[in-house]
Amino acid sequence: MPGEMVEQWLEQAAHAPDPHTALDYAQRAIDLRPDDPRVQASVQRSMFQRLVHDAFLAYMAETDRNYVVTFRNSRPVAVPKARAQPEPYPRTTPSERLWRLIGLMLLGLLPAGLGALLLGPLVLPRAVAILTDGHSDAREQRSAWLALVVGGLIGLVGAVLSLVLLLHIIA
Amino acid sequence: MLADLVYLCLTWLVPAFVLLLLLGPHWRWGHFLLSAAYFIVLIGLGDAVSVVWFALPPALVGGASLVILALGLVLIYWLRDWNAAGQAFFIFSIATTAIYLVYAFFVTAFSPLSPIAFLFSFGLFALELTSLCLAMSYAFEVLDVVCRVRWRRRPVPVPLLSYVPKVSLHVPAYNEPPELVAKTLEALSRLDYPNYEVLLIDNNTPDEASWAPLTVLCQRYGFKCLHLDHWPGYKSGALNFALAMTDPQAEIIGVIDADYLIQPDFLRRVVPYFAEPSVAFVQTPQDYRDQETSHFAQAAYDGYKYFFALSMPARNERNAIIFCGTMGLLRKRVLQEIGGWDEWCITEDAEASLRILNRGYQALYLQETFGRGLMPLSFDSLKKQRFRWAFGGVQILKKHWSKLMPWAHWLDPENRLTGVQRYFYLTAGLQWFNELLTFFFTIMVLISAALTFTGHTSLLRPTTAAFVVLPVILIGTNMLRALWGLVHSLRITYVRAAFALTLWFALTWVVALACVQAIVRKRGVFLRTPKAASRAAWARALQATSLETVLGTACLVGAVAAIARSPSLLAFGLAIVCLSQSVIYLSAPTHSLLSLRGAPRVAEADRGAVAGTYASESRLGLQIGVLALMLGVVALLASFWPAPNHTPWWYAWLNPQPLLNPQVLPGSHLPEPTGTLVPTPGGPTFTPVPTAAPSTTPQATASPVRHTPVPSATALASPTTKAKPTMPAATATAAASATLPATAPAPPIATTAATATAVATTAPTAAATATPPPTNTTIATATP
């Protein structure tokens, strides 16, 4: 059983003759149960026993759950991250891209609304695509509706400003 | 009407501001009824001045007073923890700003300008709109602390009882001198808290000789030490690994910079607040210990303290504080829950606090110093540090803007940020752009100066009296309010506050640069300032601020050029603006040189130095300079686009003058509308002269824009307007006398209906001085 195996590896790590061996045992436990605080404590204890003589630790790689590091001239060692997955960024959902366009529309108000008017027609098909996409979740759908409304309002302001510009052109 | 409202608002704002300066910090009680009475008295005072002195229409004054009274009472209730002086000033500030913006928009949109001039002027209006909104947010922050009479969320001391969780203190270090870290570790070893560990994380220091002594130091105190080599993710990457290496028993994490000397009671006094499970983090002020060494250090110190004396208490009242890293404690479980420090962001501490609050946790700000660090040694280091902060601030905004929108909760029901929290985090991000706006404004001012020098003022918006008076008052009140806030929150003198303010100015360029970089870059970068070839300290100091010096000098040249070419009021005003901009940018070399003076400071590491990717300031400055130059050339070429040499039909049709009632100053170019007033039952209406048809009025077909145009403006005024002049004689006289020497011949003045009427009917002296004799026959046909 994995649980029993973890207990055994931890027990062996606790009674290992040297930090290198202790760390080897702890590494086996990490593979089985990386989120267990006792496993983490065991890894840390072994690592700090080695680090006390040489604090050098080099980054090699990382996965969602572990860091892979190395001491000076050592084999790779896995260290549990012990935390949740961070928020992905930049997000690339369709609604995020749509809102980026809305942001550009807002900037497009600066040249007397011309930019907003030009970009406005691009918002509509993208929003409709999200709304009609059966795979998009409720949040995406709401975001698309909102983008339509906000885009429409910015477009309206842009239209008014462009009209004023037109008045200055035809004067 | 809008111009009248502008003046009416000013009669409210100015006394409210004077009373705020006198009473604001000392008025320590508040009640809704008393505030309402104070507010009504101020409105009445302003109304009386408006009607009696400025001769504004009583109906307009009364109507506007009722509107502001209704809105004001709502705001007084909402701001019920402030004293009356703060409430009244804030309400009048909002009203004045709003009216000014509407007025500015209408003048921009409905003045007969060439299309390019309209675009240029609209850009200026956008700058005004954004700057004034940001100024309001600054005003709110200052008033919220200085004028607050009730604190509802100020933490009360909690003794350390049975709750003694294990605390893990993380000390990140990069290229730090061992003697500096030794002091820090020694202070940490003296903490009078029974259950803590210290983890020193040396992050990517390239030279082993620099970090190796740290391991010895840690062994001496029984602390843990890690040197992380080639570690990604900046400081946050290192702190995330430290989190993985933290004792699993630890419940609380603290981040302490390597130069901080902590008081022994830090943990004993702060940890007990975590007994309340909803508290996720507690922040205490970051303080410094080397501010006495020079004027530069003093100014930097006051600038740093501003945030912890004003911004943080205001935020704490709404559970919207920022976690600032050093001198803060954080619940480990919460940090793990949000996924640790964000390695994408170079101000990971502030970013983490937003994600924590988004989960509905509480945060506390304890306004008591528990540790002191070192400030940047030189202006160069300060620039690098400020670049990093601004860059990180904009990064946070880029990532989290959607969480801060009013509709965020509707989009994502898991978003638990309150409206006020969203407001504070949004303004915290947007306020960085204030400096970028200042930079854009400088470019526009320089272009305006160049246009004035070359005689192409037609690209500029008509400069009305309100455009001169109101911005001066708004800028003046904002500056004074900032000084006042510094003086009363930090208990310093006005001179010292002014010095701190100039240091903020000095960092304008670098913050603007950081904003641009943060917008265009996907990953964090750090600033590399220009390096001098010379070994002399003064040469290095000047070289580090070479771009600011160029900008400041250009503004000075612009001021001289504007006056030299056409010594008009417009040019004079432009010169003052140029000078104010030059003060902003020339503050940088001044402070850079000042940082060399004073008592020698501890020769510690460069506080602005970090590990990461760097961007060259010289290269970025060159790129932005080329863009600005191109914009200037385009503006110069565009200024050859002829301005309308007749009154556009739409202008006459819309007839915006009764609404605007602007008094145009000399040097501007508002052509008067042409047409006739037709008496109707509902009052006289304006009938435009069709531009296609031959006009009966001389100027409709042939007159240049800046000819002598006054009388036709008189023709526009309705009898009602004539009977109730909207522009006071005193103001008209003042404007005229400010414009011209008493003995000088009157230059051509493009003025508008009500002003001219006011001048003619109520201020014959002013009219005689400032307005030329009627030359236009329209008056005879148009006046009913």
Q: Can you tag this structure with a few keywords?
A:
heterodimer; A: 171 residues; mainly alpha; three-stranded antiparallel beta sheet; B: 784 residues; alpha/beta; Spore Coat Polysaccharide Biosynthesis Protein SpsA, Chain A; three-stranded mixed beta sheet; 14 strands; 8% strand; disordered C terminus
Q: What do these coordinates show?
A:
The complex is a heterodimer of chains A (171) and B (784). With 171 residues, chain A is mainly alpha-helical. Chain A has helices spanning 2-14, 19-32, 37-51, 94-107, 114-132, 138-170, and strands at 56-62, 66-70, 77-80. Chain A has six helices and three strands. Chain A has a three-stranded antiparallel β-sheet. The longest helix of chain A is centred in the C-terminal third of the chain and has 33 residues, at 138-170. Chain A is elongated and about 90 Å long. Chain B has four domains: 1-150, no CATH class; 166-381, Spore Coat Polysaccharide Biosynthesis Protein SpsA, Chain A, CATH 3.90.550.10; 435-594 and 613-643, no CATH class; 649-782, no CATH class. In chain B, the strands form four sheets. Chain B has a seven-stranded mixed β-sheet with strand order 3-2-1-4-8-6-9, sandwiched between helices. Chain B is globular and about 85 Å long. The chains are: A mainly alpha (171), B alpha/beta (784).
